[in-house]
Amino acid sequence: MPYLLIEHLEELRDWVLLEYRHTSEWWGERLIFTNVEPHEREELAKLGSVLSQSVTEFPFDRSKLIILDPFAEEELKPEDIEEDSIIVVGGILGDFEFTGKTKKFITEKIEGAKARHIGSVQFSIDGSAIVAKLIAEGKRLGEIEYELNPTIELDEFSEITLHYAVPKLDGKLLLTPGLIELQKRELGYTETDDEISDEELEAFFEGKGEL
Question: What top-level branch of life does the organism fall under (predicted)?
Answer without folding.
Answer: Archaea
